[in-house]
Amino acid sequence: MAATVDLHNSSLGPILVDAQGRTLYLFEADKNGKSACSGPCATAWPPLLSKGAPQTAMGASASLIGTTARGDGGSQVTYAGHPLYYFVGDKAAGDVTGQGIDQFGAKWYVVGKDGKKIDND
């Protein structure tokens, strides 16, 4: 099924979420639109995968959405060139417990409507 990227208000302002309202993150170690997160990293930070072209809802920008091939053959959703991930520590829609965590060699940030990290460090 094709993934959907939406925009919801959170304690950090408007952020990218999936169709179920789960927060999406970017990883600062990713370079040139390619994921640097696999193995144990992808267990803690599961990639947002899409079967088919990903969609945008409400506030998200269709011109910024895309995909990148993962090493395992999956198709990971990107936004403004950043591969998108979930955080296993987020238990409910709207949780942002992964914000600013330094893990697997770089920091993780919630993504804003413009596709840039929301940095409140």
Q: Describe it for me?
A:
- A 3-stranded mixed β-sheet has the order 2-1-4, with no helix packed on it. A 3-stranded antiparallel β-sheet has the order 3-9-8, with no helix packed on it.
- The model has no long low-confidence stretch (mean pLDDT 95).
- The protein is globular and about 35 Å long.
- The protein has one domain.
- It contains 1 helix and 9 strands; from the N terminus they run βββαββββββ.
- The protein is mainly beta.
- Helices cover 4% and strands 31% of the residues.
- A hairpin with a 2-residue loop joins strand 8 and strand 9.
Give the gist of this structure.
With 121 residues, this protein is mainly β. It has one domain (4-110).
**SSE order:** EEEHEEEEEE
Number of DSSP strands?
9
Number of self-contained structural domains: 1
Structural class: mainly beta
For the sheet with most strands, the description reads: 3 strands, mixed
Helix content: under 10%
- DSSP strand content: 25-35%
Backbone CA Rg: 13 Å
Detail the poorly predicted runs: none
Q: Judging from the principal axes of the Cα atoms, what is the shape? A: globular
Mean pLDDT: 95
Distance between the termini: 36 Å
Count the helices. How many? Answer: 1
What's the arrangement of strands in the largest beta sheet?
2-1-4
